[in-house]
Design brief:
The protein is of the alpha/beta class. The chain is built from 18 helices and 17 strands. Helix 7 links the parallel strand 10 and strand 11. It binds 2'-monophosphoadenosine-5'-diphosphate. The site of 2'-monophosphoadenosine-5'-diphosphate has 15 residues, from helix 5.
């Protein structure tokens, strides 16, 4: 966070107007970018309870370089602008004001924000069939994006059919006057979902269902979701919504709305400063957002017997976090033990399963203590995935301590040995080989020799 000392007479001001603004994440996005790029800019929230038009005119006269606008002022402020970008006009709302010589020009970066989030995921809407769930303001922006990006058919389903019909007829009117738009919006009541043609589709979830504990889905029928090739939920908190859980259950890739929030901010910043934000900086901001919203994962790595599962469970309980064990999760997913995977398919197959599992974890897991398999750090790709999933802590134990902890355990295929002496030699050798990999993966080391589980947990919390 920028400190007062760094603000000088030349510091430029960016900001957000809305009501309320108390929980906004935009300062985190924009101040992180300014800091990383070394820009003399500060971004602050302004709570404008009423008369946003006067507020915007005042902001211009105060020299404020750029503004975001949020609920409930996104439409009302349009009156105070000198110019409005055509796509923002089509949506009927602006969220970004860019300073020009004559006044502010209004843009809507929510919609291109979603476009950029999808693009980064390798998803194109061109010639696609889309299924849009919900017909509020957000859905209107999504349908506009889909039309402008060349989607073919957009099935717009809503509990209240009239709202879907209104969006469809208004946007189709504008589309008729817009060159190059070929797509159609087909409004339906949610109960008419069976009339959506069963073609591979991109699903976008725009209802508020999922925001609250116990929320269901607009359409419950599993069959309906099987035609999804990919799903995007505009909601980002909770991190995994009921809609996403449904798709994940069928192994259909999906994302929550956090990348849309990220990219609407990035595009606004690019408009204000004419800088383009590189992907690694976007990733860094996303990571900060995830930590801020969901809480950081803690990942325990270390050799067999270092206490990852026992310590992990105790730590999760102490901190009110979830607990997950990668070995146990892989065994459950494969329906057999790790010993069987090693014996029947070999070590490489098991390592592949670990990598695949880590990729999924990175996308879906927050506020969780993750205990990992002892050899997961051997692959460079796994080490990178771990670091991007949370804070990696190495639970370190000496060869002697490890031997005393694991000698009676028969569930570890890599430790099969004829005698205790052979086992001791094996542990020593493997520890020596793996030590550099643990060191490269972890940001913190906790020595566990001679310590009790509560002592180790306290050590981690202190770190
Ligand atoms: P936004 O501007 O964020 O899109 P909105 O205009 O309040 O928000 O729209 C909320 C969307 O969630 C609407 O599609 C709404 O359906 P209706 O138009 O029928 O109200 C949908 N929604 C909210 N609660 C719902 C519920 N319990 N069941 C089904 N749909 C719901």
């Amino acid at each position: 966070m920028r400190t007062q000392q760094k603000i000088t007479g030349t510091t430029g001001v960016l900001g957000l107007i809305g009501n309320p603004v108390r929980h906004t994440l935009s300062p985190l996005i924009h101040n992180t970018i300014s800091e990383e790029l070394g820009k003399d800019l500060v971004y602050v929230p302004f709570q404008a309870e009423e008369d946003p038009v006067t507020a915007v005119r005042g902001a211009y006269h105060l020299g404020i370089q750029g503004l975001n606008v949020t609920v409930p002022h996104k439409t009302a402020v349009m009156e105070a602008l000198k110019e409005i970008d055509p796509a923002a006009k089509m949506i009927g709302a602006v969220n970004t004001l860019v300073r020009t010589e004559q006044g502010y020009k209004g843009y809507n970066t929510d919609m291109p924000g979603l476009g950029r989030a999808l693009k980064r995921r390798g998803i194109s809407l061109r010639n696609q069939q889309l299924v849009v769930l919900g017909a509020g303001g957000a859905s209107r922006a999504v349908c506009t994006l889909a039309l402008l990006e060349g989607a073919k058919e957009i099935y717009l389903l809503n509990r209240t059919k009239e709202r879907a019909e209104k969006i469809a007829s208004e946007l189709m009117d504008t589309a008729a006057r817009t060159k190059g738009v070929v797509g159609r919006i087909l409004p339906l009541s949610a109960s008419e979902y069976e009339s959506v043609p069963r073609n591979p589709s991109i699903f976008v979830q725009c209802t508020s269902l999922g925001l609250h504990e116990g929320d269901g889905l607009l359409i419950e029928d599993d069959n309906f979701y099987h035609m999804a090739e990919y799903g995007f939920d505009l909601i980002y908190n909770p991190a995994v919504t009921p809609f996403m859980k449904k798709l994940q259950g069928f192994m259909i890739p999906c994302d929550n709305g956090l990348t849309m929030l990220l990219y609407q901010g990035i595009i606004a910043y690019e408009l204000w400063t004419k800088e383009s934000i590189p992907d690694p900086l976007a990733d860094l901001v996303l990571n900060r957002l995830e930590r801020q919203i969901y809480g950081e994962n803690i990942i325990l790595v270390g050799y067999m017997g270092s206490g990852k599962s026992t310590v992990g469970q105790a730590l999760a309980k102490e901190r009110g976090m979830r607990f997950l064990d990668t070995d146990a999760a892989i065994e459950e997913a494969e329906g057999c033990s790790i010993r069987e995977i090693f014996e029947e398919r070999g070590e490489k197959a098991f390592r592949d399963l670990e990598t695949e599992y880590l990729r999924r974890l990175k996308a879906t897991t927050v506020n969780t203590v993750i205990a990992t398999g002892g050899g997961i750090v051997l692959r460079n790709e796994n080490r990178e995935l771990l670091k991007r999933t949370g804070r990696v802590i190495w639970l370190k134990a000496s060869a002697e301590e490890t031997l005393s902890r694991v000698k009676s355990d028969t569930g570890r295929p890599l430790l099969d040995s004829a005698s205790e002496a052979e086992l001791a030699g094996k542990i020593e050798r493997m520890l020596r080989e793996r030590t550099p990999a643990y060191g490269a993966a972890a940001s913190d080391i906790i020595e566990t020799d001679g310590k009790t589980v509560p002592e180790i947990v306290r050590g981690i919390i202190k770190e």
